[in-house]
Amino acid sequence: MADAESDLYYVANDSVEGIDLTGIQNDLSEIKQSLQGTVTKTDLTNAMVNLVQQKDLKTLVSNIVQKLLDHFEEKITSKFECKIREATGKLDDKLDTLMIENEDLRERIRAKDRVIENLVEKVGDNNNRSIDALKLANYNEQYSRKHNIRMLNFPEKRGENLRKAFIETLKSDCKVDIEPSDVLAIHRIPGKDGYQKPVIVKVKNTETKIRIMRQKRSLKNEVKLHDDISQRNLGLMARLKNTEKFENVWFYNCNVYAKTETSSRIRFDLFDNVEEKMKKKLKDGN
Prior knowledge:
Elements: H1 2-18, H2 21-35, H3 41-55, H4 57-144, E1 148-152, H5 162-174, E2 183-188, E3 199-203, H6 206-214, E4 224-227, H7 231-242, E5 248-252, E6 255-259, E7 266-268, H8 274-284
Antiparallel strand pairs: 1-3, 1-4, 2-3, 5-6, 6-7
Keywords: Coiled coil
Coiled coil: 95-122
C-alpha cells in the first residue's frame, strides 16, 4: 500500500512536470484580451435602453430648452421691469422738476408780458404825445413865420441896407409902395455855396404880405419871393410830391395842401398817412 501511494506521487509529479504552466497562462491572457471586445448581455441591454431613450431625446431636449427659456424669460422680464420702474421713476422725478420749472418760467413770461404791455402802452402814449408836441411845435414855428417872406437871388452888396433895397425893388419892379415901418425885420440867412444868401423879410401884418406876394411875378433879375416855410413842412411837401399821386402840392396860410386830378384839395399834417387820408377823402366825397 505504501508502495502504491509512492508510485502515484511520483506519477503525479512527473505529470505536473510534464505540463508547461507558463504557456497555459499566456494562452489564458490572450483569450481574456480577445474576449474584452466581445458584446455581452449587459451591453445589449444597455443598447436597448439607449435606443428607447433616443426616441424621446427630441421631446426631452425640447422640454429642457423650453423650461430654460421660460426661466430665462421670467428672470430677464423681472430684471427688465425692475430697470424700467427705476428709469421711469427717475424720468418722473425729472419731469416733475421740469414741469415746476416750466410753470415758473411761464409765470415769469406772463409777468414780463405784463411789463411789456405796460411799456408798449406808455411808449404808444409817449409817441402820441411826441407827435402832438411836434405838430404843435411845427404849427407854432410856422405861425411865427406867418408874416415872413423868403427872398431868393437878391443881389448882395458890401455894406448893403437891405430894408431900403427891398422897399426900392418892390416899388420899381412890383409897383408896390410900402413904408419902412412895414418891414419889422430883414436879414440874410446862410445858403448854398456859390449862390446868393437868401433874405428873410418880416412884415408887420398879413395885409402887407398879401399886397407884396400878389405882385411877386413882376420881380426882375430872377429875384423870387416865397413863403417862409418851416423845415418840417418843406419835408412834408417833398414827401407828397415824391408819391407822384398829386398834380399839385402847395403851402397856404400855415398849412400844406395837395390835389389829385379827380379830387378837391386835401390838407395834410406832418404825420398823416397819405393813402389813408386819400381813401378817407374819397369816402367822404370831394
